[in-house]
Amino acid sequence: MKSILIIALSLFAVSGTAMAQKTQTVTIHTSAECLECEQRLEEGLNFTKGVVFAELDLASQNVTIKYSTKKTNPEALKKVINELGYDADDQKAEAAALQKLPSCCKPGGMENGEKK
Amino acid sequence: MLSYLGFSQIQGIVFGSEDGKRKQLEQVQIKLVQADIGTTTDEQGRFELILPRELPDTLVISAYGFYSDTIIVTKQDRFTGLDITLFSEKTLETFVVEYRKSSKTVSRLKTLYVEELGEGELKKAACCNLSESFETSATVDVNLTDAISGAKKIQLLGLDGVYTQMQLENVPFLTGLEGSFGVNTVPGTWVESIQVTKGTGTVVNGYESMAGLINVEFRKPSTMQKLFVNGYGNILGRGELNIHGGQILNEKWSTGTFAHVSGLQQEIDRNGDGFRDAPLSKTASFLNRWEYNGPKFESRFGVNAYYDERSGGQLSSVANRYNAFTQNKHVDVFAKTGFLFPKKPYQSIGIVYQAKMHELDGNFGLRNFSGTEYRGYINAIYDGIIGTTDHKIKMGLSAVGQDLTQKLDSITLKRPTVTPGVFAEYTYTGTRITAVLGARYDYQTDFGAQFSPRLHVKFIADEYTDIRFTTGKAWRLPNLIVDNSSLLATSKAWSLPAQVKQEVVWNSGISLVRRLRLFKRESSFTADFYHARFQRQLIVDREASVDTFFFRFQEGISFSNTFQTEFSFSPWRTVTIRAAYKYLQVMAQYGGDLQQQIMIPKHRGLFNIAYASRNKRWEIDATLSLYGRMRLHDVHYPDGSYTHHEISKRVPQVLAQVTHHFRKFDVYVGGENLANFTQSNPIISADDPYNAAFDATRIWAPVLGTVVYAGFRYEIERPKSKE
Question: Does A116 contact B64 at a Cβ distance shorter than 8 Å?
Answer without folding.
Answer: yes
